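Below is how a single chain appears once it has passed through the pipeline. First comes the sequence as given, then the structure the pipeline wrote out for it. We keep one example in the README because the format questions we get most often are answered faster by looking than by reading.
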Amino acid sequence: MDSPKIQIHCGDCLEGLSRVPAETVDLAFADPPFNIGYAYDVYKDKLDSEKYLSWSADWMSEIVRV
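Resulting structure:
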C-alpha cells in the first residue's frame, strides 16, 4: 500500500476547495462555526440565517465534489 499523502491547508475553505481537482480527496474534516455568536478572533459568528445556510450549502457541495 502506498503511503498516504497528508496535507493540511489553512485559509478560506471555499477558495481553497475551488483549487482542488474533483474526486481527489479521501477524507475531509470540517469544524465550521455554528453561527451562535461565538467570539472568534477575526470571524463574525453571527450571520443572517439565510446567508449562513447558503454558505454552508456552498462548502458542503465543494466537499462532495472533491
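The longest helix spans residues 49-65.

See the next section for the split statistics.
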